[in-house]
């Protein structure tokens, strides 16, 4: 991962704040807006446009296709520097039990490049029993600032491209930060495990030494309501899995072993790179 590039995008994200009012020229979503659904605004937007979403719960799946680049989606917020003041939730409940691929279950399917998201909660409401994504990220140079991502299994897919998550929250139980080719940086992110007897935060699917995939969790926190030692930092979806936790506080929900093999009789640990540096807890 090219850290200077990721750091630059992080600074760019932090320089924009949402607030309660739409910026000039934005497409407006809401009861009294130009568009009643987020998808309708996305469909109407040209590359580089800003979409402002008024407070509310939007029951829909949102798809931003390849080629629809540079969009900015901003949710109304009472505290734009934190996800705690978010007033916009986009929720849907597709899962692989519906016969869909991982990507097609995503509440947000973000396939465009240069996308930015501020102060929006993305929820997959399916729950236990199948893969069900809140986010499917396939585009390059995407940023998520003060957003929440809620699910159970496979909450956030960083599949391809570079993705930055800043001051956000991600919750789940099984492999809930995962992907095969994505390069993702998580900065000041609250990782929250849901109550389960056993769980894994990351499942990076890097499959070769030439695959650029790398997940870095930096200056973040890990906690939740699960029993002590019930969760592992990750397990290798593929044999070259690469993840680092650094400068991060961890509660007792994390097992002292740290990491786990993929499954009994299928370790996939021969070429993994798992790092921990200057963490606490």
Automatic annotation (TrEMBL):
<feature type="domain" description="Pectinesterase catalytic">
    <location>
        <begin position="29"/>
        <end position="281"/>
    </location>
</feature>
<protein>
    <recommendedName>
        <fullName>Pectinesterase</fullName>
        <ecNumber>3.1.1.11</ecNumber>
    </recommendedName>
</protein>
<feature type="signal peptide">
    <location>
        <begin position="1"/>
        <end position="18"/>
    </location>
</feature>
<keyword id="KW-0456">Lyase</keyword>
<dbReference type="GO" id="GO:0016829">
    <property type="term" value="F:lyase activity"/>
</dbReference>
<keyword id="KW-0063">Aspartyl esterase</keyword>
<dbReference type="InterPro" id="IPR012334">
    <property type="entry name" value="Pectin_lyas_fold"/>
</dbReference>
<keyword id="KW-0961">Cell wall biogenesis/degradation</keyword>
<comment type="similarity">
    <text>Belongs to the pectinesterase family.</text>
</comment>
<dbReference type="InterPro" id="IPR011050">
    <property type="entry name" value="Pectin_lyase_fold/virulence"/>
</dbReference>
<dbReference type="GO" id="GO:0030599">
    <property type="term" value="F:pectinesterase activity"/>
</dbReference>
<keyword id="KW-0378">Hydrolase</keyword>
<feature type="active site">
    <location>
        <position position="175"/>
    </location>
</feature>
<keyword id="KW-0732">Signal</keyword>
<comment type="pathway">
    <text>Glycan metabolism; pectin degradation; 2-dehydro-3-deoxy-D-gluconate from pectin: step 1/5.</text>
</comment>
<dbReference type="GO" id="GO:0042545">
    <property type="term" value="P:cell wall modification"/>
</dbReference>
<dbReference type="Pfam" id="PF01095">
    <property type="entry name" value="Pectinesterase"/>
</dbReference>
<dbReference type="InterPro" id="IPR000070">
    <property type="entry name" value="Pectinesterase_cat"/>
</dbReference>
<dbReference type="GO" id="GO:0005576">
    <property type="term" value="C:extracellular region"/>
</dbReference>
<comment type="function">
    <text>Involved in maceration and soft-rotting of plant tissue.</text>
</comment>
<dbReference type="InterPro" id="IPR033131">
    <property type="entry name" value="Pectinesterase_Asp_AS"/>
</dbReference>
<keyword id="KW-0964">Secreted</keyword>
<dbReference type="GO" id="GO:0045490">
    <property type="term" value="P:pectin catabolic process"/>
</dbReference>
